[in-house]
Write a structure and sequence with these properties.
Blueprint (H helix, E strand, L loop, with lengths): L13 H7 L2 H4 L3 E4 L23 H5 L1 H4 L6 H12 L4 E6 L2 H4 L4 H6 L2 E10 L11 E12 L4 E7 L5 E8 L9 H5 L11 E4 L12 E3 L7 E4 L4 H12 L23 H12 L18 H4 L9 H6 L4 E7 L4 E7 L7 H18 L10 H9 L15 H27 L6
Parallel strand pairs: 1-2, 3-5
Antiparallel strand pairs: 2-4, 3-4, 5-6, 7-8, 7-9, 10-11
């Protein structure tokens, strides 16, 4: 027996020591590893697993080279082989963290073997592995010193069928950073708050944590105001218009090119998308996100806020601060009425029918949000407290299905712009 993460190589059979200690023989050596996917817990809600990744000799020895990647057992395997058995070939299965995760930036700086080939397959192809993410099979050549930037990976499905290629990036060469770095340009903590953006990490894996609410009882919150509403809607639409899959799970959303600033249709499409994709709830405060007037939906009483329809109609004067070389200037922007694409208009039309049907019911909340309307018709599970996925009301089911279908069409209109403006790499 040999403990690769703790034992000295002198414990190996002599014949294997002879290969490891011979420079020419090492060039013919292939290290094949299928390490466990155990990880020492970090981040939100995780606990350290006793003895996993934290107590090995290799972790202590190469802590500097590993950085935060020292929490991962497979990274400990790779760094020891790379440093102590140089010029060999390495073939391994692992997640794509070593290529893409920001926690592996120190690791990538020190582990500079050439990645010759890689294929990807769904994680649950493997026994006892749960989760919707890719596992890669890597072939490394440690004779060639090369920093990983990008590679085209072969993709195989569960049936072992080749289904295409995917570009995999390290994101280490970014000049401006990730999408959250971009969003910081639009923080506004002085104006009246109309909503809260909950945003955490910048990959598809964490997209379910990206929501707009009026509940600020969470971490990673950004106030939404009249000054940054459009940018916040762009952020949410960019994060949500493309569904997370096993293949894009680790892809990062990036600091975009500035061309989006001139594209009013893209901005307006993102606004329309967000108005029917948010989690605003009236129980947390005034609902400023009603996209229709009282007359349009036959409301029986006046809304507490007409902010959104006034904003869309161009009735509001929005102050924006523009920094100059020597000071800051406050600009008063007289908005023109928003002009929406045909795809966005169909979303509004479908949404209006849903709102009208809701306001035709008895015992309703006149100021109900999109979330509130869904909750009204779908109800909640008595045991879990979660909103039910379906409703027994056939008319509502028909209306919400139509709205969702129109949202998909609008999302498909937004998708090409996400890549064009490089919120995502293709």
């Amino acid at each position: 027996q040999f403990d690769f993460l703790n034992d000295d190589f002198t414990k190996l059979p002599q014949s294997l020591q002879d290969i490891i200690n011979d420079e020419n023989k090492r060039k013919k050596l292939v290290m094949y590893i299928n390490p466990p996917y155990a990880e020492a817990g970090t981040g939100l809600g995780k606990q350290h697993k006793e003895g996993v990744a934290t107590k090995h000799m290799i972790k202590s020895k190469y802590q500097k080279e590993l950085g935060k990647a020292s929490n991962e057992i497979f990274a400990q395997f790779l760094i020891r082989i790379y440093i102590e058995i140089s010029q060999c070939k390495i073939a391994n299965f692992s997640t794509l963290k070593n290529l893409q995760s920001s926690n592996f930036s120190d690791f990538r700086t020190n582990y500079r073997a050439k990645l010759e080939k890689i294929f990807l397959t769904p994680a649950d192809t493997f026994d006892n592995v749960k989760g919707v993410f890719p596992i890669g099979f890597f072939i490394w050549n440690t004779e060639i010193v090369e920093s990983f930037i990008q590679i085209e990976a072969d993709i195989y499905d569960k049936n072992e069928s080749f289904i295409g290629l995917k570009s995999v990036y390290s994101y280490d060469d970014l000049k401006k950073g990730k999408i959250n770095d971009w969003l910081r340009n639009y923080y506004d903590k002085k104006s009246d708050i109309i909503g809260i953006m909950h945003n955490n990490k910048t990959d598809f894996q964490h997209n379910n944590q990206v929501v707009i609410t009026t509940d600020d009882n969470k971490d990673h919150t950004t106030p939404i105001t009249s000054k940054n509403l459009i940018e916040m809607c762009i952020y949410l639409a960019v994060r949500k218009a493309i569904n997370a899959t096993w293949l894009n799970d680790r892809d990062q959303f990036l600091y975009p090119k500035e061309r989006w600033v001139e594209d009013k249709e893209f901005q307006n499409n993102c606004l329309a998308f967000t108005l029917f994709s948010n989690n605003i709830q009236t129980k947390y405060g005034t609902n400023h996100w009603i996209p229709f007037t009282e007359q349009e939906v036959n409301a029986k009483e006046k809304f507490a806020s007409n902010f959104m329809t006034d904003f869309i109609a161009g009735k509001l004067k929005v102050e924006k601060t523009e920094a100059t070389l020597f000071n800051e200037e406050v600009l008063i922007i007289n908005n023109f009425p928003f002009q929406f694409s045909a795809e966005a208009k169909t979303v509004f039309d479908a949404g209006k029918e849903l709102w009208k049907y809701y306001h035709a019911q008895k015992d309703i909340n006149a100021n109900a949000s999109f979330y509130d309307i869904r909750e009204y018709f779908q109800g909640r599970n008595e045991k879990t407290g979660r909103m039910n996925n379906k409703s027994t009301n056939e008319k509502y089911t028909e209306l919400i299905a139509d709205l969702r279908q129109k949202q998909i069409i609008l999302a498909n209109k937004i998708k090409p712009k996400i890549y064009e403006y490089e919120f995502l790499k293709e």
